[in-house]
Write a structure and sequence with these properties.
globular; DUF4198; DUF4198 domain-containing protein; 3 helices; four-stranded antiparallel sheet; mainly beta
Amino acid sequence: MRLRQRKTGCWPAGWSAPAYALALLLAGPVFAHDFWIEPSRFTPGAGIAVAIDLKVGEEFVGDSVPRRTRTTDRFELYAGDDAPQPISGADGLSPAGTIVADGGRTMLIAYSGAGGTVTLPADRFSSYLESHGLEWVIRERATRSEAKEPGRENFYRHAKILLGGAVADPSLGSKALGQTLEILVDGDPTQDRAPLVTGRVLWHGHPLVGGLLIARASADPRHPQNVRTDTQGRFSLTVDHGGIWLLQIVWMERAGWFSSEDWQSHWSSLTFEKPQN
């Protein structure tokens, strides 16, 4: 199954592709700016080459983000108990990488990297925070007398995708990889037909309490499910039909003393194709 795609444009000198794409999206009336991994095949057979694309967009319509080695901390393939393998690809090109599937078991690809910096007017920054359940940041800005100041942040990206195989791997999606903000799922949603997906979210390796997890189906991207993580960082979603699903969450922390920005945001996503019930 292939998702819709925008024609990729050019970005100004000095901007990274993801930073420019995010800035364009944030400038619009809707503050949806998803980042996800999109493969050429979600369930590849043995020996099939799979293009691995990094995407920035909204509601499953996105621009390809070229590979940027100097801003990438992790871009790896995980399968079973094997050591993670780096995703091969050429710097500056998209799709960002290619793998050859073994077809025998579920595989996972993980990406982490720096995105860039963004500054928003105060009203837009507050709207963006509200849309991702970060009301506590709004309150802290008010406490610091920053409510009318522009919002300045560094943003970082963490994305995963599960690729289906002939045999399920129920432990792969629940294995913590050490991403700063990380979505874990129980079982293997690429094989499980039950209409429930459960899991947890980790922040710096610990359960994230009160984070807003957004689940979006490619078949109905304009009507996402929103759930809050509980005191153990856990969540439960009703996934009542098959197809491609994107789970995403955003969390923030105050930037360091010497940073020119006020906040550091981390964006995490997990994509998978669930079989039809």
